[in-house]
TrEMBL record:
Catalytic activity: L-methionyl-[protein] + a quinone + H2O = L-methionyl-(R)-S-oxide-[protein] + a quinol; L-methionyl-[protein] + a quinone + H2O = L-methionyl-(S)-S-oxide-[protein] + a quinol
Cofactor(s) this protein requires: Mo-molybdopterin
Keywords from the named record: Metal-binding, Molybdenum, Oxidoreductase, Signal
Record's protein name: Protein-methionine-sulfoxide reductase catalytic subunit MsrP
Family: Belongs to the MsrP family.
Enzyme type, top EC level: oxidoreductase
GO biological process: protein repair
Lineage start: Bacteria, Pseudomonadati, Pseudomonadota, Alphaproteobacteria, Rhodospirillales
Note accompanying the cofactor annotation: Binds 1 Mo-molybdopterin (Mo-MPT) cofactor per subunit.
Gene: msrP
Length: 310
């Protein structure tokens, strides 16, 4: 068993005073907005989550690597582009951040980041992160379960999938000045994947708010799927009857599928998926089915041919 699934988070943990103070500080960030929305964070500020039982027993990748070796094509294609360009582009000037909730639900509308987060207790979860390029990290996220957020908008019986969209703003995302990808970046999940307890909306890592390079102010984390499913800087969540055509499916339909579950047996045309390089380690390690989360999620795909539904 690779992750410890302990008892539910206790009330005493979520009402811990330090956590409460930090949450208030986080919520105070948005005071400038006309709607209750947090500003684009220029630098990270403290953000604590209650320690969750959802944690792998592996050494977290140093924060330096997590925040400087990134894939975020809105800034450029080099791993160093996001960290190098974000400080001069993304943070200026500060602007409120809102999310549009739409589609098959009873309560669509626009909601400020603060209001989206406020009702939920922040958790710290230490997850593996596996990029389809065959490198991996272990990241201590701070976030809230996506399921709890989605339920508030009361998805109806036609809501079979959820689609997420990244902000389009070439002033802040210099990579969007060229057509590296078909902007906006779009990703999607099947409803049961979105509602799975492991699926997280992250607003921080290593006890601080997300830096732009990691998808500030809010991004998706689905630890059993390849990293590209973890869409950054989300401005829209839409409930749909049919699966989203994701950015990578549009860009290379033969290389990327909708599910993108980590699978050592199904190779990408350019990268074998049998092994991976954990950033900071010398020897390659074996890639685990569902990135080591098979016990928790394999049942979602019972009866599906995973070589076809990749
Ligand atoms: N909007 C957007 N989200 C994105 C990407 C991107 O280019 N644009 N890259 C994805 C890929 S390929 C990976 S591996 C992860 C990397 O997340 P990290 O840089 O925080 O480790 O972000 C994903 N989310
Ligand atoms: Mo990736």
């Amino acid at each position: 068993m690779l992750i410890r699934m302990g008892p539910d988070i206790r009330e005493s943990e979520v009402t811990d005073k330090g956590l409460w103070l930090d949450r208030r500080r986080f919520l105070a960030m948005g005071a400038a907005g006309a709607v209750a929305a947090s500003a684009f964070p220029v630098g990270a500020s403290p953000l604590t989550g209650a320690k969750s039982a959802y944690k792998v027993d592996e050494t977290p990748t140093p924060m330096k690597d997590v925040t400087t070796y990134n894939n975020f094509y809105e800034f450029g294609t080099d791993k160093s582009d996001p960290a190098q360009l974000a400080p001069s582009y993304f943070g200026k000037p500060a602007k409120p951040w809102t999310l549009a909730i739409s589609g098959e639900c009873a309560k669509p509308g626009t909601i400020g980041l603060e209001d989206l987060i406020k009702p939920h207790a922040l958790e710290e979860r230490i997850y593996r992160m596996r990029c389809v390029e065959a490198w991996s990290m272990v990241i201590p996220w701070v976030g809230i379960p996506l399921a709890d957020v989605l339920k508030r908008f009361e998805p109806n019986s036609k809501a079979k999938f959820v689609e997420f969209t990244t902000l389009v703003d070439p002033e802040r995302f210099p990579g969007q000045r060229s057509r590296l990808l078909d902007w906006p970046y779009i990703e999607g999940l099947r409803m049961d994947e979105a509602m799975h307890p492991l699926t997280l909306l992250a607003v921080g890592l290593y006890g601080e708010t997300l830096l732009p390079q990691n998808g500030a102010p809010i991004r998706l984390v689905v630890p059993w799927k390849y990293g590209f499913k973890g869409i950054k800087s989300i401005v829209s969540i839409r409930f749909t009857e049919t699966p989203a055509r994701s950015t990578w499916m549009k860009s290379a339909p033969r290389e990327y599928g909708f599910y993108a579950n980590v699978n050592p047996k199904v190779d990408h045309p350019r990268w074998s998926q049998a092994k991976e390089r954990r950033i900071g380690e010398f020897l390659k390690r074996d890639t685990l089915p569902f990135n080591g989360y098979a016990e928790q999620v394999a049942s979602l795909y019972a009866g599906m041919d995973l070589a076809v539904n990749y």
